[in-house]
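Notebook entry, structure prediction.
Reason for the run: the old model in the group folder had no record of what sequence produced it. Starting over properly, with the input documented here first.
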Amino acid sequence: MYQILLILLFILSNACYAQNYCKYNKTKYKIIGEDITVFGVAHGTDISAPNNILPKSNGTILGIGFGVSLKKRITKNNYLKTELSLIQKGSHFTFPNHYRESIRLNYIEIPLLWSYSFNKRKKTFFFETGAAISMLIFSSKHIKKYAEQSQIPNAQNFKNIDMPWIISIKVPFNSRGINNLLFGLRFSYSPLSIHNEFKTQSIRMFQDDGMHHISFGIQLDYIFKR
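New structure, fully documented this time:
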């Protein structure tokens, strides 16, 4: 995991210098304090599941996350951005015997995002999208209980690696001219199945036999200013 993070940071810190115009603008494009952000996420998170899984229904639980990001300007309005975060995902399940259980899966997540800034009604908006590598580090003890209730062999066998796609849009939250506090909406979806027993049979969203994370919520960013 640490090797992946170091590689991403190295790429971002040197990508600009690989282009000719940066040879004459090293001061303008170097990493400064404003490129470093800490953030928190609060989202409703769910696990979509195929009909052949025993739970009668499943639903959304509240998940939280926090992390740090590093952004690198490529052009005036385009950036590359990487994050390192601890993010919580999961779902609650109701079984035919009315037993309810919530499971929480906790990941170290490393996204690589494209960020684009634009102005609308005298406000600067930031649109971000990209893929992430998520490594499952620990899960709630209720995983075993879920496996017992589902009566499916290896029901607790969630994958250690997930690759979600992330989309977010943000706007400055504080007074004009400071703009170091951003409020945004964040959506995340795992196109590949997060479970070893239930495989992704189709790339069509929500229409296969896999299990997928779906998360939607808010994000608050604090940008360090020099």
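Summary: The longest strand covers residues 100-120.
The old model has been moved to the deprecated folder.
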